[in-house]
Amino acid sequence: MNTAQRTARPRAAAAVEGALAARKRLALTAVLARQLDQIAPGTARVRIVPVTTDREGEQRVAMWVALDDALGLPLKADRLAHRAALGLLRRAFPAANWTRPHAYDAATGDLALDAPTLPEELHR
Length: 124
Fold this sequence. Notes:
Structural class: alpha+beta
Number of domains: 1
Strand order of the largest sheet: 2-1-3-4
Mean pLDDT: 88
Shape: elongated
Radius of gyration: 21 Å
Number of helices: 2
Largest sheet: 4 strands, antiparallel
Distance between the termini: 68 Å
Helix content: 25-40%
Oligomer: single chain
Strand content: 15-25%
């Protein structure tokens, strides 16, 4: 008799969905790069590190933001530019754990944990 069988999803449909997801990611990367360039011209990398400050005996968590150019040198930008870059990335990546340091690469669109590591020569 006829029994219902689950069929595998066609590979063509999965390929089309994958291509659409890739286009959306490329579009997001381009928009973020353009907006970061408008905030601080020449921005290639944004580093965000949560720091604890002590104000009048009260502990607070603040965000330290560094805007770097393609050579890794810091850009001259005012406080509002740093705040705007932080807000832009927080809105673009709402699921990220912002209690840990992150680095965003404007060329690739990758937001990665920015944990300090030892150079290879010191691993003895």
